[in-house]
Amino acid sequence: MTSRLRLVVIAGGLILLLAAPILAQLTGSAGLLGLANRIAIYAIAAVSLDLILGYGALVSFGHAMFFGLGGYAVGIVAFHTAAGEPLFGWSGSNAALIVWPLALVACALLAAIVGALSLKTSGVQFIMITLAFAQMVFFVLVSLQSYGGDDGLLLDRRNTLPFIDLSRPTTFYYVCVAMLIGWTAFCSRIVNSRFGLVLQALRQSERRSINLGVDPFPFRLAAFVISAVGTGLAGVLWANYARFVSPDMAVWSKSGEFIAIVVLGGLGTLLGPIAGAAVFIALEQLLSIWTEHWMIVMGPILTLVALFGRRGLAGRLFGERNG
Amino acid sequence: MNRSAFTRRMIVASLASAATIPMMQSAFAQAGANAPVTIGFITTLSTPAGYIGEDIRAGFQLALTDGKLGGVPVILAVEDDALKPANAKQAADRLIQSGVKLFTGVNFSNVLAAVVPGVLESGGYYVSLNPGPSSFAGERCHRNYFVASYQNDAFHEAAGLSANRLGYKRVALLAPNYQAGRDALEGFKRTFKGEIVGEIYTKLDQTDFSVELARVRSLAPEAIYQFHPGGAGINFAKQYANAGLGKSIPMLIPAFSMDAHMVGATGDAADGIYASALWTPEATNPASKAFVDAFRKAYSRTPTMYAQQAYDTANLIGSALKAVNGDIGKQDEFRKALLAAQFTAVRGKFSFGPNQHPVQDYYLTKFEKRPSGEIVQTIVRKIAEDYGDAYAAQCKLN
Amino acid sequence: MILFVEQALNGLQYGSMLFLLASGLTLIFGIMGVINLTHGAFYMVGAYCAAFAVLSTGSFLVGIAAALIGAGLYAVLVEVAVVQWLYRRDHLYQVLATLGLILFTNEAVSMIFGRRPPLMDIPSFLQGSVPLLPGLDYPLMRVAFIVTGALVAIGLWLLVNHTRVGMLIRAGADDREMVDALGVDIRRLYTLVFGLGGALCGLAGVMAAPLLAIEIGMGERVLITTFVVIVVGGVGSVRGALVGALLVGMVDSLGRAYIPQLLLLSLPATTADTLGAGLVSASIYLLMAIVLLVRPNGLLPARG
Fold first, then answer.
1. What is the C-alpha to C-alpha distance for residues B32 and B53, in angstroms, rounded to an integer?
2. B220 neighbors C298 (Cβ within 8 angstroms)
3. Full-model pTM
4. What was the ipTM of the complex prediction?
5. Which one, of C248, C258, C287, lies nearest residue C7 by Cα?
6. Type and span of the H or E element at A251
């Protein structure tokens, strides 16, 4: 019964995602497509964060740094390409197939360094040290004078793909949705692999796993890096969606927002965070249209979710673990 | 508020922002005269800087009579950007897609930089009522982009001229370490003729300036020039006075480092500060007096310079709407009408330079304590007449 | 030399402000295991209460009382209404719940008090400067701040080491389950500690208010630095909070005073400028990263 319901919900969500542009067209509200696109992008970041938050119990309070770095990698390359100033002798490129992997490699490198250092700690110290690194990244971005400093950087146009015209909003949206589906499938493969099982075993009882001869460090580091790459991908897509990057992308409250989305959707469920992103962003939009004091409603909602939503929105449906 | 009112308001609001605008646009686009013109008004209403957006909106609305601007009915589509460029850009894209052609309202340079390119690409107009960043003033000037306030460097250049006029030879400079801060100090140095004894950059979000004040004292300049907007500006002024520096080393600032709103939170510590400005509530020309009286009557507070600029911008737009009788589809005529600037500016003289940025007068003003205890910003003297900006020459319009 | 002493005093003053905030936060974390992001909001509530009390009565002492009571009561309210349900839960839920409370508090304060920062002047008996050394006049308000920090440190030391409540606090920080097992009314102790932490934030708020703009969001600006302090010092220990606060205060102040100048001696001006600014901004986070890498539990952790 539950598994059937689960399938229905997944199928329903998928149809909703795929039909969003048509709905936008039918209702004539141009904002709807943008809203759906933002949801798809945030969902990629949320799924990635859930990988370490839900399955690894590594509470990173600094994931916005990867979101920011992914975006800035796209922005900086575009800036040099447009201005005709070579970057380390490279004349730049607008091709997504070159720029995007480059951005993801940058995120992976940063994550490897930050992860290697941060994983020496655990618990509240881990939360705080990831926050500290994110703050450092934030201040570096603010101090990048030639890339606009805190004013951010505007992109003249989106990256290009062969045969696919990313400058069309609907096309770009479907690319984001495809990325979301692909990435979620990849993550769920990981979770159910031996690697993922070890990760979850470490979460449940670190001591027992160590006694069994498992060294937790490489597993956790690998998970951290994968999660960072996914968040970086969201940053890359965001930079292309908004055609604008700013240090705001790496601000600490953005990390908090990501955590909120994951918990809202259901920790350790992968699909839950997608629902979480949809609800969070739609709610933010609706409330801010309703009143400029929207935070007076949004704040208590987050608090209530933390208090009562032990398993998030979708926890009961997709959950294999308890909150 | 009961629940049905809650939902009703929500529905009305979302309809207004998303669905009704395109319908109105398409229905009235051909109608020409008497069709309301929608003005995209993106500004900062939440966050601590929200008071600026409130004053901007209040100043703009004060210029409307019965919902009409220059005799043409207008609809203000107000959107809060929460001081986030990305939010502003989304709001702008949404409005552009629903057919809005005329935009204003943004109060920060970084937000403006995110909004303007999209508006111009879509063939729309942007009339800035506050920031005028250098990036759009020179080579990247645009025939549909007008700045009705000031070019960002102008206050700093006027401050440099003021320092010359006040006879200061040795000045120390302080600003937060980000783009606007660095631009501020560059602008000051462009016109200041004396010696710069120190340039001190403060941290973003810094609230305590004791360390920097100790350095100022050790440098012993004749005066300082500092630029810290918002809360940081209040903090700086309070701590400067508390450190006893206010009495010995005069402070010079650009107008937006101490607006009418900040004076209230700074108190006596503001006494004796010099500021370069376009206008103060104490200005004596009739248009200004009428504006200040009307604003105080409508909102029971003293307008800030932001409200004044918004009011002037609204009247500028009104003059151009009147000239085309509300049909902003007549592109050449609408542009020409804006450029002509046929309106009575509260600040006094106003015209556009070749890059469609203002050419106007700047003043040296001083904050002084009245016997009643009230702190007012009085005009000391005119410091620059018919002053344009340094970027106009790089702009190849017309 | 005089300048160096003055800058060190500035560091000390900043440190004592951080100590007022961090001591409560570290106790809350040490005893209840709760990450309380709302802590900065208590500081803001204290500053607003003080400002409006002073505006209506003109007395700074009333302002102090209002700040202590206002922030303390708000903290108790937060504990009773929200935080008490989160003691046994994952840190994640605590972060989310208290993040929500920050948004709520900011918006509520702006709706109640308005967006205009209220004015709070320096009380007349704390105006002006005192000569501490020949050639060094230091503002009395800042001296008072340092003295307040020192008094609170002594007071907390007495409380923790020489009272029954203190014994429970120590026991709680060492072994939560044991205090539970003792059958002590642990709920009351928790609420009390939360209220105490809030009141200390209120004290920091009222002392900072005459020197700062009292505005929405002022709490978040100090919140992260406060977390840096308790993590550097070692969570759960008041001693750690004191050491951490002084260290962070000094590193930040002396860094701002001297890093740009030191770099100028060895590097070209533009490089030194950019690098200096970055280092100054990141100095306390660097400090925290280094401390954690060398001593993952901080300098003086409560639990060994």
1. 31
2. no
3. 0.86
4. 0.87
5. C258
6. none
